[in-house]
Amino acid sequence: MVFLKKLGFALIAAALMFFLLFSYFPQTRAPYLIVYSYAVLGLGVASLIANKIVQSIQYSRLSNVPVRCRRCGWAGMGRDWRRSQCCPECDSEQVVITVH
Asked: Is 50 within 8 Å of 2 (Cβ atoms)?
């Protein structure tokens, strides 16, 4: 879920920009804006944590699934592919899940 990862980093960057704005321009320091910035920062961290949880679930399911390389024809289990994120024989990223 690359979307959750990018969303998390974007929210954290936005919150840090707000904090930077508050530190350079004290007249913009309103309590509701500071609470909003902390909420955006919390959502960014929560999005990154959710991404890690989803990623670990997907990788655990992938380890017991047969996969095949489209480039060289190598066939094996998902745990072999997961180690390097590419085909162990030809280093291609064109690995697909095969259905029996």
From this structure: no
